Amino acid sequence: MATTEIRVPKQERAVKKRDAIIRASYELFCRKGYYQTNTAQIAKEAGVSTGIVYSYFQDKEDILLQVVRLYLAELKEALDSVLSGVDSGRGLSYMVEACYERLYASHTMRAEAHDEFWAMALRKEAIKELFKAFETELLQELYRKLACRQDVSQTLLREKLRLSYHILECSCHDAISPDLSKAERETLKQLTVSAVVDLLERKIN
Amino acid sequence: MATTEIRVPKQERAVKKRDAIIRASYELFCRKGYYQTNTAQIAKEAGVSTGIVYSYFQDKEDILLQVVRLYLAELKEALDSVLSGVDSGRGLSYMVEACYERLYASHTMRAEAHDEFWAMALRKEAIKELFKAFETELLQELYRKLACRQDVSQTLLREKLRLSYHILECSCHDAISPDLSKAERETLKQLTVSAVVDLLERKIN
Amino acid sequence: MATTEIRVPKQERAVKKRDAIIRASYELFCRKGYYQTNTAQIAKEAGVSTGIVYSYFQDKEDILLQVVRLYLAELKEALDSVLSGVDSGRGLSYMVEACYERLYASHTMRAEAHDEFWAMALRKEAIKELFKAFETELLQELYRKLACRQDVSQTLLREKLRLSYHILECSCHDAISPDLSKAERETLKQLTVSAVVDLLERKIN
Amino acid sequence: MATTEIRVPKQERAVKKRDAIIRASYELFCRKGYYQTNTAQIAKEAGVSTGIVYSYFQDKEDILLQVVRLYLAELKEALDSVLSGVDSGRGLSYMVEACYERLYASHTMRAEAHDEFWAMALRKEAIKELFKAFETELLQELYRKLACRQDVSQTLLREKLRLSYHILECSCHDAISPDLSKAERETLKQLTVSAVVDLLERKIN
DNA sequence: AATGAATGAGACTTCATTCAT
DNA sequence: CATGAATGAAGTCTCATTCAT
């Protein structure tokens, strides 16, 4: 009755194949966009037949979902590694700068991914959920990291973190513009970091 | 692409018709997305025949272009009205807050428009140009407005404005999330405004 | 939101085209069966493009529905003309024989139609309904015709008519078998008619 | 079609497996129809791998053929048991009623099977042959049973038997309709049996 | 100029069958 | 012998665009 059963691959080869499809799709969705990519191209890029795709995924939208999941997982991992690497005794601005650089690197590599997927979230509830969960978890973690620091004002900390994250995000997003010179890019970074540090340090009555 | 000549309507009726198509498309693109909207629906919503659409527009993408043009024009006008209304002797934070509110209103009304069009800019060079031109012009104007004020540090003013604009943008974007309470929304606004004001006021060596 | 709108053709040309699609499908479904006929073939046989088919019909199953409707309408009309032609003062056996011949003719022309459509009724509720309605109406009419005749026993008349109809049906169905000689066929007819006449005339306590 | 050799299983395990496939298919074809059943489902229901199916059967159609063979064999056996149980000195109407009930039971259990397979016979010559052979053999046997009875008119006996069989068949087929009340069903049975008995007893000049 | 019916390429998806393991 | 992953042809349906009226 239900549509064709979806294989949950456990054997190594199957896992690899599923992964190859996701990565090929990731690549293509970034390069050409979701709607400009068809399943034949995905199969070809992944080196499999069109049919097999539907053994691993419900439909094309399901592929997108898994691709976004991968995208967010990569981003999460990158940020985690940054955060865990600096939680020692370094200053706040060092930490923020590290985050900025990490986010910037993500944006450089996957310039298209973010916007493409973000826009898809508008139309696909399941994707919206992924983004929401990602943000919630990330902010929660940031909160845990900063809640005990002396150099961070605890007033409205959650809200400040939320805003800080978005500022970093959009600044990095803007900074990848090819119209900017290296110097301008550096300036933007300094401004962004200091704005965020200020926001977090400042006491608000 | 096509060879058919595109009519540049001068007669009143023709102008109205063209306009109706753009507005209908605007509406539909926001509600359902570009790819989920077909030309038949556009024609129906605009109250014209499918055939006539191709007298006014090269193809579907061309409609999108005009829709984005309209979207940006509306946004520009809204911001202009804000800026011209406050350039008297009001304080900086008053001005920033007015901008925030205006941007927030835009986002509320056209929550989908921004993301949808922004993502389309990735795939369509012509749309990217529109966005770039919009931003350039807006920042230029802001610069003119603020370049002479005493309460604004002139150091790196262009870069600060650029960043400020993006901060306001993304904060408003975030603020429309239905998960936020009214109080949280207000807090976010205050934080955003004060962060931007700080950024603009602060002297940077 | 709903799938593409279905055109309800009123202009003569459109009606003709819709009709052509139905007749082409009728033909093909009989000749090759529903599942062995694809939409491209239907379009080709009807002399239209594949796309236009979906302007007139929801989907392939909808075409089948209309084809069955046509099939039953033709059959109904044929039986009606037989019944109205004999309701004067002719004997019962004359009437039954006329029905037999009419049904036999239907079966000869559309040998495949009946079985094909009948089997489809198993899987498609909508088609089952059509068959049921057809039979109910037909039996109702037969009842009106015979309820007043002296040569027909009124006891259990409705049930007898139901059975009679099925006997005629299946006998005709059997009679088209190419294995039968002309004489055998004639014999079967005589036996069938007399069995039905007997059934209707006989008083049952 | 294929060149692969089809195994004719002799070992017990192999026979069982082949049988399981046929029975699983029988079940599924009845429940969902031939075209709505795919080979993966068959294999799963039979508890075998998809690959092995093609060791025992030429192709999907071949499975259908064996399923129909099984269906007819079951029906034959049921009717045989009825006929052999009553050939002593019981009256004709007792015998006909027993047949009716047996056929009715078959139809109840396998309501879908009959129509589904019957319609398939239209498209697949091999299946048509099976049905034809079944009927011929059955009628032959009936003939042997009745050819010597005093209460059966020998005139046109073969033809009468043929018609009788079809009457019983289609009446049973009709009788399973869920729209009928128990009483109506009983009435139909009585009418059918008496019509058949009449047909067989009656001398025709 | 206007209509909306018509076109047909191409998208997604299914599934009978094969074949490497 | 057996498995079930893999294949790819073929089917249904959509929709941007054209064109006869």
Structure characterization notes:
Four copies of one chain form a homotetramer. With 205 residues, chain A is an all-alpha fold. Chain A has two domains: 12-58, Homeodomain-like (Arc Repressor Mutant, subunit A), CATH 1.10.10.60; 65-201, Orthogonal Bundle (Tetracycline Repressor, domain 2). Helices cover 76% and strands 0% of the residues of chain A. Chain A has nine helices and no strands. Chain A has helices at residues 12-32, 39-46, 50-56, 60-86, 92-109, 111-123, 125-146, 157-175, 182-201. The model of chain A has no long low-confidence stretch (mean pLDDT 90). Chains A and B meet through helix 6, helix 8 and helix 9 of A and helix 6, helix 8 and helix 9 of B. The structure holds a DNA duplex (21 and 21 nucleotides).
Keywords for this entry:
homotetramer, 205 residues, mainly alpha, Arc Repressor Mutant, subunit A, Tetracycline Repressor, domain 2, 2 domains, 9 helices, 0% strand, elongated, DNA-binding
Low-confidence parts of chain A lasting 5 or more residues at pLDDT below 50? none
Broad structural category of chain A: mainly alpha
Radius of gyration of chain A: 20 Å
Question: In whole angstroms, how far apart are the ends of chain A?
Answer: 61 Å
CA-based shape of chain A: elongated
Largest sheet of chain A: none
Order of helices and strands of chain A: HHHHHHHHH
CATH architecture of the largest domain in chain A: Orthogonal Bundle
